[in-house]
Amino acid sequence: MKYIIGIGGMTNGGKTTLTNKLVNAFPGCCVVHQDDFFKPQDQIPVGEDGFKQWDVMTSLDMEAMVNTVKAWLENPVKFARSHGIQVSPELEEPDSEEQTHILIVEGFLLYNYRPLIELFSHCYYIVVPYEECKRRRSTRKYTVPDPPGLFDGHVWPMYLKYRREMESSPVEVEYLDGLKTREQLFNQVYEAIRNMLNS
Ligand SMILES: Nc1ncnc2c1ncn2[C@@H]1O[C@H](COP(=O)(O)OP(=O)(O)O)[C@@H](O)[C@H]1O
Ligand SMILES: NC(=O)c1ccc[n+]([C@@H]2O[C@H](COP(=O)(O)O)[C@@H](O)[C@H]2O)c1
Ligand SMILES: [Mg+2]
After folding, report:
1. If DSSP codes are grouped into helix, strand and coil, which group holds residue 173?
2. Distance (Å) from CA 13 to ligand 3 centroid
3. In terms of Cα–Cα distance, which of 80, 158, 83, 72 is closest to 119?
4. Which residue among 115, 138, 146, 151 is least crowded, i.e. fewest CB within 10 A of its CB?
5. Cα–Cα dist 113/13, whole Å
6. Residue ranges around ligand 2 (CB below 6 Å)
7. What is the DSSP letter of 194?
8. Half-sphere exposure of residue 97: CA atoms within 13 angstroms, side-chain side
9. Ion ligand 3: residues, CB < 5 A
10. Rounded CA separation 22/18 (Å)
11. Where are the beta strands (DSSP E) in the chain?
12. What's the pTM?
């Protein structure tokens, strides 16, 4: 069986931190980070809000991201090997259709792009309150630093827009409280995935 777990949610909710812990906990587990699919800076236009539009769907090459997920689905062992992930001998068996393979897909805009949504076995969505999100974001160092006012002028309004859109769509997400400790979040999701694999 192949399982694709989405770790979505707002910026600075703790997605990448949780994902890294999960990837380490499941041997052979593969990962796709949405951040790796941002278009180059010169292709990101400035919007009516006066900011470069990083937090909209069109800033990402979603077609390439979906193709990457489909490449994993096609051949998880080949995908793992080509990404330097150690594959245990039993996962390499020719009858690996009967083996369990896990892919974690992580990012801030996972559930607003139909061709990706339909690939998920389970969708998580991490949230933290506005103040905490803004506080964490203020200490982050992105490859392109946030200009002054970006959070309130662009990041937060786009988060609200896409969350509303997601909530009025058929996608079913399980919310995670990003105020829990890193360990609590990990234990909760690790146990849930273990149960999913055993059911
Ligand atoms: N459960 C948590 N509690 C407190 N701080 C956290 C937690 N998880 C992550 N962080 C911190 O919050 C910031 C954003 O975490 P990160 O995992 O990069 O979030 P995201 O990928 O959702 O933007 C980092 O400074 C990280 O150390
Ligand atoms: N990785 C990049 O090239 C890049 C550039 C500019 C902004 N960002 C920011 O990354 C955020 C998404 O990543 P996180 O969910 O990890 O915060 C977006 O809110 C976006 O503003 C990323
Ligand atoms: Mg991240």
Report:
1. coil
2. 8
3. 72
4. 138
5. 20
6. 11-12, 15-16, 35, 38, 54-55, 108, 142-144, 155
7. H
8. 1
9. 16
10. 6
11. 2-9, 30-33, 101-106, 122-127, 174-177
12. 0.96
